[in-house]
Each structure stands twice: as structure tokens, then as C-alpha cells.
């Protein structure tokens, strides 16, 4: 009986210890600290915080109704007025995503990943249906080993009122690491929105 009682006492002591230490189990996550209460019987309880639910915005502006540039786009870039490149030459084609926080990402389909084919950027709304975008890519030579420098790409786009197409112009300025301009391209860009109904479409 004495041995059984001793086991029960040890078991209860262990349970009590675990219960006391449990609040500290989250100490490494979010700098958790146990709440301290004074001895006054009507201590003030923490009040709940009310947070405004997130809504669709454009460039930090209040939510707007109607179509926006936010979404995924299939794009085609056509040379117009680029030195040494005939007008109508396809410069690039690929996909882009415009995000509601004013950021953007572009995936080039006609540029080898070895040379750098992902660009990151920002955008703003400049009118009821017009937008401006500024983004940058990092270019390497054809070996994918030697860094060439940053490429600045700008777009000025108009969104169709049904929200399913865009058109506008672009410029591409390729620099070396010393800031020297190596190439300048320009032209027109057209885009179609990618939806749940979008099926196969050739890239070029």
C-alpha cells in the first residue's frame, strides 16, 4: 500500500508540474509572456481589437468597382522604332501577374532562363483605365555565368473596359554594372487576361 501511495503521489506531482509550466511552452514563438494580474479582484481584462477586413485596392487607394489590372496576363511585345530591329519584330512574349499591393512579376518566354527571364516591379494607376509599370530584370550573357547588368523595363498600358485586354507601349533599357546604356528597345505591348476558361495558347 505504501508503494502504491508513493507512486500516486509522484504521478500527481508530475501532473501539477506540467500544468504550471504549460503557459511557457510558447515562449519561443511570438515572444510570448504570461499575463500578470494584480491582487485587485476586478482586474481589467484585455479588450478585443477590431481589425478592418482587407479589401481589393489599387496602389493603396480605396477599393474601386469594376475591372482592374490585378490578375494574370499573357503578353506580346512588338518592336516599334527600335534601332536596328525592324518594326513588327516580336521582342518577347510571356506571362505577368499584377498584384493588389502594387507589385508585379513578369516571366519572359522568349528569353532563356540562363540569361535571366524573371523581372520584378511596381505599378500605379494613372487614370480611370491607364496604368504605369516600372520593373527590373537581371541579365547574364549566353553562358548564364557572367553578369551583364540590370535591365529597366517600363510599360504604359490602357485596360479595356471589359477588363479582359490591355494595350500600350514599352521601353527596355539594358545597362552594364557601371551604369552604361548597352541597348534601348521600344514598341507596343498587348495583353489578354488569363481566366479559368483560358486553354492552350501558343506562346509566340
Outline the structure in words.
This protein is mainly beta and 204 residues long. It folds into two domains: 1-33; 71-193, Quinohemoprotein amine dehydrogenase alpha subunit, domain 2 (Lipocalin, Beta Barrel). Helix content is 10%, strand content 39%. It is built from one helix and eight strands; from the N terminus they run H-E-E-E-E-E-E-E-E. The protein has one helix at residues 2-21; strands at 71-79, 90-98, 103-108, 118-125, 130-140, 147-159, 165-175, 181-193. An eight-stranded antiparallel barrel has the order 1-2-3-4-5-6-7-8. A hairpin with a 5-residue loop joins strand 7 and strand 8 (181-193). It is globular. It starts with a helix and ends in an 11-residue tail after the last strand. The model is unreliable at 8-57 and 59-63 (pLDDT under 50).
Task: Please outline the helices and strands.
Elements: H1 2-21, E1 71-79, E2 90-98, E3 103-108, E4 118-125, E5 130-140, E6 147-159, E7 165-175, E8 181-193
Antiparallel strand pairs: 1-2, 1-8, 2-3, 3-4, 4-5, 5-6, 6-7, 7-8
CATH first level of the largest domain: Mainly Beta
Largest sheet: 8 strands, antiparallel, barrel
**CATH architecture field of the largest domain:** Beta Barrel
The CATH superfamily of the largest domain is known as Quinohemoprotein amine dehydrogenase alpha subunit, domain 2
Helical coverage, percent range:
under 10%
SSE arrangement, N to C: HEEEEEEEE
The number of distinct helices, counting runs of at least 4 residues, comes to 1
Structural class: mainly beta
How big a fraction of the residues is strand?
35-45%
Arithmetic mean pLDDT:
78
**CATH topology-level name of the largest domain:** Lipocalin
The overall strand count is 8
- Widest sheet: strand order? 1-2-3-4-5-6-7-8
- Structurally, the number of domains stands at 2
